[in-house]
TrEMBL record:
HAMAP family documented for this protein: HisC_aminotrans_2
Gene: hisC
Name of this protein: Histidinol-phosphate aminotransferase
Cofactor section: pyridoxal 5'-phosphate
Chemical reaction(s) catalysed: L-histidinol phosphate + 2-oxoglutarate = 3-(imidazol-4-yl)-2-oxopropyl phosphate + L-glutamate
Protein family per UniProt: Belongs to the class-II pyridoxal-phosphate-dependent aminotransferase family. Histidinol-phosphate aminotransferase subfamily.
Subunit structure: Homodimer.
Pathway: Amino-acid biosynthesis; L-histidine biosynthesis; L-histidine from 5-phospho-alpha-D-ribose 1-diphosphate: step 7/9
SUPFAM superfamilies, A to Z: PLP-dependent transferases
Length: 355
């Protein structure tokens, strides 16, 4: 007979991260990492921080990092929260800013962590279907009776809501918290950060994992009215007040200060994305316009699962989601030009030569 705690444990349905395989060296286009290394200034800062001070706890307020982000976005430090990757911040936001007496609204298809957090914190989810073209239906988020989270650009669809769309969702929900998850905003989108002064109900969440090549360091941040930031801090301090360690903090500060490297890196990823999107369309793929560091592609004749397996056999890893509506699509992160050329060549073999 199963005991109540085994049933409780089994009732938790966790997020399943993308593969990080160790069996051989792959061209890894499956978890939206940046193909370029972090700024050299980051490595230098990490070396500087890797000394005797590691015996000391880090600053629980992450003052240096908070102030660096505040300066970067021209906001007061009280409008900035830093966390151990944006996943952690999103978890805190679900706990601190959404009420269990009300549902939380998000698009259906979206980042699969949202239903996990909702269920963990006992929130009902209202999943708002995307349009046939995978767009977020803005008006379906007007005057809702609960919290809202919008990923922009959306994952895994790569599609983007223009700033005016975000503004109108905020205007139609003055009494609801609206979280905008901007993990991929630096690849061509316009951030909602500039709306923070007008909307005290807006929390913008970003990460250093993608555009700043620091997925391995685990640093994200949130920007918003100090009352929202206060809520996040209260949750953080109820779990672990030292979320950002000394090395992560030093590396993150250095990354944020190297604007030239950052801009160049984003430009490279965007240029590769546009070049590869064009080549895939020539091969007959449907490729929605992407504002992220990945493409969400479908072939009219070749099932995505088959392409996923055959690419894997050729040493190229992409993401396949076995879920309704998107089970014939692949999500492909933008790698270096050489990696993407190998990817297109492999797809050409699988779709044209063998057809
Ligand atoms: N939001 C979205 C939409 C994402 O795709 C990801 C990355 N998987 C994250 C947040 C979390 O990124 P991180 O925790 O590395 O900051």
């Amino acid at each position: 007979m199963s005991r109540y705690w085994s049933e409780l444990a089994a009732s938790l349905v966790p997020y399943v991260p993308g593969e990080q395989p160790k069996d051989k060296k792959y061209i890894k286009l499956n978890t939206n990492e940046n193909p370029y290394p972090p700024s050299p200034a980051v490595l230098e800062a990490l070396r500087g921080a890797a000394g005797g001070d590691l015996r000391l706890y880090p600053d629980p307020s992450s003052t240096a990092l908070t102030e660096t982000i505040a300066e970067y976005y021209r906001l007061p430090p009280a409008s900035v929260f830093v966390g151990n990757g944006s996943d952690e911040i999103l978890a805190f936001a679900f706990a601190a800013l959404f009420r269990t007496s009300e549902p939380v609204y998000y698009p259906d298809i979206t980042y699969s962590f949202y239903p996990v957090y909702a269920s963990l914190y006992g929130l009902e989810s209202v999943k708002v279907p995307l349009t046939d073209d995978f767009d977020v239906p803005i008006e379906s988020f007007y005057n809702v009776d609960g919290g809202i989270i919008i990923p922009n650009p959306n994952a895994p669809t790569s599609k983007y809501v223009a700033l005016e769309g975000i503004r109108s969702i905020l205007e139609h929900n003055p009494d609801r918290v609206v979280v905008v998850d901007e993990a991929y905003i630096d690849f061509g989108g316009e951030s909602a950060v500039k709306l923070i002064h007008d909307f005290p109900n807006l929390l913008v969440v970003q990460t250093l994992s993608k555009s700043r090549s620091l997925a391995g360091l685990r640093v994200g941040f949130a920007l918003g009215h100090p009352d929202l930031i206060d809520g996040l801090n209260r949750v953080k301090n109820s779990f672990n007040s030292y979320t950002i360690d000394r090395l992560a903090s030093a590396g993150a500060v250095a990354a944020l200060k190297d604007e030239i490297y950052f801009q160049q890196c984003c430009r490279n990823v965007i240029a590769t994305r546009e070049r590869i999107a064009g080549q895939l369309r020539e091969l007959g793929f449907d490729v929605p316009e992407s504002k992220a560091n990945f493409l969400f592609i479908a072939h009219p004749d070749k099932p995505a699962e088959e392409l996923f397996r055959k690419l894997r056999d050729k040493g190229i890893l992409v993401r396949y989601f076995n879920k309704p509506r998107i089970d014939n699509r692949l999500r492909v992160s933008i790698g270096t030009d050489e990696e993407m050329d190998a990817f297109v060549a492999a797809l050409r073999e699988l779709t044209v030569a063998a057809a």
